[in-house]
Amino acid sequence: MTATNLTVKDLRVAIEGKEILKGFNIEINGGEIHAIMGPNGTGKSTLASSLMGHPKYEITGGEVSFNGKDLLKMTVDERAREGLFLGMQYPSEISGITTADFLRSAINAKLGEGNEISLMKFIRKLDEKMNLLEMDEKYSQRYLNEGFSGGEKKRNEILQLLMTEPKVAILDEIDSGLDIDALKVVANGVNAMRGSEFGCLMITHYQRLLNYIKPDFVHVMMQGRIVKSGGPELAERLEAEGYDWIKEELGIEDETVGQKA
Amino acid sequence: MQVDTELLFDREYVTNFSKDANEPDWFLQSRLSSLELVGTKKLPKPDKTKIDNWNFTKFKHQVTPLGTELPEQMNGLLTAVENQNVLAFRNGQLAYTKIATELSEKGVIFTDFATALQKHSDLVEKFFMKKAVTNAENRLTALHATLLNGGTFIYVPKNVVVQIPLQAIYSVSGGAGLFNHVLIVADENSSVTYVENYLSEDNEEAVANIVAEVYALQGAKVSFGAVDNFAAGVTTYVVRRGYAQKDAKIVWSLGQLNDGNTVSENKTFLIGDGSFTDKKTVSIGTGEQRQNFTSHVIHTGKHSEGLILTHGVMKDSASSIFNGISKIEHGASKSNGEQTEKVLMLSEKARGDANPILLIDEDDVTAGHAASVGRIDPTQMFYLMSRGIPKKEAERLVIHAFLAPVVKEMPVDAVKERLIEVIERKVN
Q1: pTM to 2 decimal places
Q2: Which pLDDT does position B78 carry in this prediction?
């Protein structure tokens, strides 16, 4: 088995002809938790969506290898089956598909034809994970995210994470809109995934999340690239002092890429 | 076309056909007067669909009987339900019968149309193409009444409630022309559910010209389910009509899932005060097929209520028109007409058009309509695929999701299951 590794080299991404990511680099290995912080409009969500292969984003340069394979050549579903996961900032609502049916399709797509999960095993796993996330079991029979509150949608994203067991998870502002109790529950879910084969990239505005999910690496993103990296202490300093000292240090006047992503 | 039919089917042909079947004279006369109309009436003009060059006339009216050894797809349907009351027909000819004794004990008639003409001639004559539909409407209804060669007759006596659905399966094959007629008469305060399945045994070009008429007399309730699933070579003209008297209810659950060109027209006359109809339909267009669907409710009775819910999915280069018409006549006060048409298009080449129409000649009514035509949401597709679900499977899920609100409302389980099965096959 290949060791878990996601390597992004000089990634450039444009949307509607405008470049948002301008040479982005990162390496994530199994067992590592990375956090990317940064003000609005610096390209964080663009990074998340383009790594997953969202059709709206155009890759204009750079390379991404995932467990030794060329990620950029894969379709969205192939990336997921290879073990990449994106916890979305704004998950879609899909009426008519229950959360349980959706999860089963996703798991079976990964396992492949002939290796489908048995119904009993699936239900046991679903019960266990929903318990961990303190989700009422009725959610599994509700249509996917339909009428879910912001917090319920985020929990549902983490439920999908736990059910599909990816190698690398990108969590795009998984903490936004959560009260402190919900935040703890979501953090529990992510922490349950921790292990030497699991890598994680958390995108967040707030240091608060990092109190509950301890990162190994913290990166600051501005103008479509990482401008500073460090350990957990970097996040603490950002919380205390904001971003201005970094801008000053690097001589950056406007940290955004000119367009909110 | 006119020339064709006259050449193929003249008075002599029709007379011999009727006499061979030993039909009552009134029915022969009906065939002959209808034949006159074939020459004088025009083709129907479904809104926004050109059907002039469709094949309505190239078929074999009489084919060699296929026998009672049912093909697999029909047998599959038979075994799918237990305790059934079933008639199965191949090219209009009765091939299988299973009827619970309970029915005859209650005086319920459930028989093939030819037998009904022999045994219940007066009853058939009283209703056949009198009010819900007539032979003079257009060339195709005239042709239907001229060449009728199969079908089912149902009569439910007063106050009788038939619990188990009555089912019929009709297949076409060998380039036949199927002129199937279903006549249902539910007498006062009776209740019955009828479910029909149409299918093809082969891929030959064929013609289906189908008429169903439902008469729900005072206080009666008829639930009518159908799954149309003819092959691509079959050109279909299907007219399903309801005629509801005071406090009568007619519920339609239609799966319009043919693979060939189709004009499907459903109309319910809410004649009596307090009469009610609810029509739910799902449609899928695939390949090159052209389809035109009309759902029409005419309110004459006061306090009448008509509901229409249509969901359609268009794939490939398929094109469909969905017309919904709620007509509330002057005097039909306190009536309510509601309709919703939703169309989902899965490809750039697919076309769908929804036309909701409210025609209201009475002030004291409520009515509403909603229509939407849209393409598949790329964000939803991205979401599904981001969990490892391949594009095709994601599309399948989205289609099921889109049709689910209608499918799950289908009142008859047998229709629901058959629908899911056929939908599955059409979207894969």
Answers
A1: 0.84
A2: 78
- Provide the shortest C-alpha distance from residue A233 to chain B (in Å): 33
Rounded to 10 degrees, what is the CA torsion of A223, A225, A226, A228? -40
Cβ–Cβ of B383/A94 closer than 8 Å? yes
Distance from CA of B398 to the nearest CA of A (A): 8
Q: Which of B372, B377, B383, B393 to mutate to test the interface with A (most CBs of A within 10 A)?
A: B383
Cβ distance A160 to B387 less than 8 Å, yes or no, reads yes
Q: Which secondary-structure segment (H or E) carries A69?
A: strand A69-70
From chain B, the residues in CB contact with A80 under 8 A are: 385-389
Task: Identify all chain A residues contacting B380, using CB atoms and an 8 Å cutoff.
Answer: 92, 94
CA angle B153, B155, B158 (to 5 degrees): 170
Interface membership of B6 toward A (CB under 8 Å): no
* Number of neighbouring beta carbons within 10 Å of residue B105: 8
CB contact at 8 A, B372 and B343: yes
pLDDT at A258 over 90: no
Q: Which residues of chain B make contact with A85, given a CB cutoff of 8 A?
A: 386-387
B428 touches chain A (CB under 8 A): no
A91/B377 touch (CB, cutoff 8 Å), yes or no: no
The interface predicted TM-score (ipTM) is: 0.95
The minimum CA-CA distance between A236 and chain B, rounded to whole Å, is 33
Element (H, E) at A208: helix A208-212
For residue B379, give the chain A residue with the closest CA: A92
pLDDT digits (tens, 9 = 90+) for A143-167: 999 999 999 999 999 999 999 999 9
| A184-220 pLDDT tens trace | 999 999 999 999 999 999 999 888 899 999 999 999 9
